[in-house]
Each structure stands twice: as C-alpha cells, then as structure tokens.
Amino acid sequence: MTLRTRLLAGTHPYDGSPLGGHWAYTQHGIQGDSLLVFEGPCEVKIEALADLEDAQAGAFIYSQRMLHFVLELFGPSLEEAVSRQWLMAATAQDELNKRLKKARVERDGNDLWVGKRKLSVSIGAPTGVSVKVHLGINVIGAGAPVPAIGLKDLGLTTRPVALALMERFADDHARMRGARTKVRLYP
C-alpha cells in the first residue's frame, strides 16, 4: 500500500491527539497509511503523554515551534512501528548532517541531540486500528523544559527539511514494502 504524504499549510498545534487512530482521515481526509507533516507549537501535558515512563516521572513536552511528522500504518505491530520510529530518527540524523556545516546531530535510540541539547521528541504507539509514530524536531529550542536546540538555531530552514524528510520517509516505506515481494520461500 502506498504511503500518502502531505505537508500541511499553515501552523497546527500538537497536543498528542494526532496519535489517535484515523487522525489523518478524520482531520485531513487522508485514508490509509499516511505521513502528515506540519509545523506548529507543541504542548503535551502529562495526562496526554503516550510514554508512561515520562508520565510517571512528571515530564511533559513543550516547544514554541516544532516540525511534526505523524505516521500512521495499518497492519504492522507495535514492534514494527518502533523500528520505523528509530529508522525515521536515523534518516533525520543523516539528512540534517548533510545540511549542517559545523554542528553534528547525534542519535541515541529515537532521540536526536546536538551536543547536550535535545533536538527531537519521538514516540511509537498503538491505536485500536493502527500504529502511530510522531517525530517532532524543534524549530526553536528556547523555552523547552530541557536543554534544547532547534533547526533555526542551526541555521536551517524548515520547509526544505520537511520536504526532504517526507520524501525520504515515503521512499523508505515503499522500498521496505517492496523488499517483502522480491524474496522466495525456501523449503
């Protein structure tokens, strides 16, 4: 199945609700496997956190402005979604490092860092009908509850990064799906 992608116009706040099943369909008319990309503020309160470890620690997520990637896949397991989440983080690391002159983005699991400042947040979560992945990359690091850095701090423009990552994520999806169809069964 083809991954339907869309870069949403304007700004859209992220509060965790896009992790709900069929969000792309009910809010934006995109049915099936999808990747929606948008820019906007991020505020996920403790009660809305999908990450139970963070919630128990009293953590919350806040950014004045983030670049959000919301992936929804129908059929895969949560383990496959987490694998896709980590692949998205690795792909973002690679793409950002290609664009940077001095700073280097490092990856620790599904988190991206520049030095000791956090560049991203990410979660893979199940719904009743699908699995979801959210990757949020700070545009502005100032004001976050942890030492953070953003694309703007790194001298990067958001739209070209958004388009490049959306294209690479969709290409990876297609190639992974295609790889399943070219192998034969061994007795």
Q: Which homologous superfamily in CATH is the superfamily?
A: Bira Bifunctional Protein, Domain 2
Total DSSP helices = 4
What ranges have pLDDT less than 50 throughout 5 or more consecutive residues?
A: none
**Which percent band covers the strand fraction?**
25-35%
Task: Assign an overall shape.
Answer: globular
Radius of gyration, CA atoms, in whole angstroms? 16 Å
Query: Largest beta sheet, briefly?
Result: 5 strands, mixed
CATH class bucket: Alpha Beta
The CATH architecture assignment turns out to be 2-Layer Sandwich
Structural class: alpha+beta
Total E-strand runs: 8
Helix content: 25-40%
Defining key terms:
187 residues; alpha+beta; BirA Bifunctional Protein, domain 2; five-stranded mixed beta sheet; three-stranded antiparallel beta sheet; 29% helix; 31% strand
What would you note in describing this structure?
With 187 residues, this protein is of the alpha+beta class. The protein has helices at residues 23-28, 52-56, 78-99, 158-179; strands spanning 4-11, 34-44, 61-73, 106-108, 111-114, 117-118, 120-126, 131-140. The chain has one domain: BirA Bifunctional Protein, domain 2 (2-Layer Sandwich), CATH 3.30.930. The protein contains four helices and eight strands; from the N terminus they run βαβαβαβββββα. The protein has a five-stranded mixed sheet, with helices on one face. α3 (78-99) crosses α4 (158-179). The mean pLDDT is 94.
